[in-house]
Design goal:
With 287 residues, the chain is an alpha/beta fold. The protein is built from 12 helices and 8 strands. Helix 3 runs antiparallel to helix 12. The longest helix has 26 residues. It is globular and about 55 Å long.
Length: 287
């Protein structure tokens, strides 16, 4: 039986997912694949390297470091989340990822990005922790308008959430028998249109299909939420959501709010753990 974990993005809302997955790791829950989008990829990779608490730790530590995330970084580098600092200095030197554990863990790590030429999702497996792998993670989490286009392995890409925010259908179509999904919005959330159509098309005039994908994103997202609910009611998937909207901005510098959202995720993970094990067929004595 093949099991997959799907993690939605949402920038710092992803710390909710960070709390949930830490409880999963502590409980011995294992998957055959993790499919991460945006922050779901950037934080979810720690499941493969088995580094409990790492996303919260470095986000809190560097919350006010301009190199990590700031308007200054945007003006000086073209990325609001500093590319070199976040995807080289931090994971390789300041708070290193466990390369040996990452690469020996048999779980597949799949990131979702958006091709800027087609406006369509790109799904890419990164099971070795190489510089290219870190660039794929960066691409998945590179928000439009405040990030440079990431070019890696012949692709030009931005945030995977533009084209496939919650890749549940992808996971089902790939043949995973059990699919666990962690969203960062509550069940009743409905995404509204981005608006500013003319500005979006002007700013992205070189990439009209990307612009259209951004303008259509609310429709895509709301369809995915409906699909999620349908498959959940069928018992095909298991979904973990915050009970209410998370009190944190997409770009947040308040370490206290980060800690709170992470703890909300941990509590949710603890509350649903018995149900999750039952869904996955994991005997309680094993975890």
């Amino acid at each position: 039986m093949k099991k997959a974990l799907v993690l939605e993005g949402g920038s710092l809302r992803g710390l909710f997912s960070g709390g949930v997955i830490d409880v999963m790791m502590e409980s011995g829950i294992e998957y055959d694949a993790l499919i991460g989008v945006s922050a779901g990829a950037a934080f979810g990779c720690n499941y493969k390297s088995k580094q409990i608490g790492r996303p919260l730790r470095y986000n809190m530590r560097y919350a006010k470091d301009w190199r990590y995330c700031s308007v200054r970084s945007l003006l000086l580098t073209g990325d609001i989340f500093g590319a070199k600092f976040c995807y080289q200095t931090l994971p390789l030197k300041l708070d290193p990822m466990d390369k040996e554990t990452y690469e020996s863990n048999p779980m597949d790590m799949i990131v979702v990005c958006t091709d800027v030429h087609t406006g369509k999702p790109v799904y890419h497996k990164i099971n070795e922790l190489t510089p290219e792998a870190l660039e794929w993670m960066r691409a998945s989490a590179s928000m439009p308008f405040v990030s440079r286009i990431v070019r890696v392995d012949g692709h030009a890409m931005l945030d995977g959430g533009i084209s496939d925010s919650i890749p549940v259908q992808y996971a089902v179509e790939q043949g995973y028998d059990k699919v666990v999904v962690v969203t960062t919005q509550p069940e009743d959330y409905v995404k509204k249109p981005f608006g500013h159509d003319g500005i979006v098309r002007l700013a992205l005039h070189k990439y009209p299909r990307l612009a259209q994908a951004i303008l259509d994103r609310h429709r895509m997202y709301n369809r995915e939420m409906a699909y999620l609910k349908e498959k959940e009611e069928e018992g095909r998937i298991y979904c973990i959501r915050p009970d209410e909207a998370l009190d944190i901005k997409r770009i947040e510098h308040d370490a206290g709010k980060m800690e709170t959202v992470y703890q909300v995720g941990r509590l949710k993970g603890e509350v649903i753990m018995d149900e999750l094990k039952a869904y996955l067929g994991v005997p309680k004595t094993e975890a």
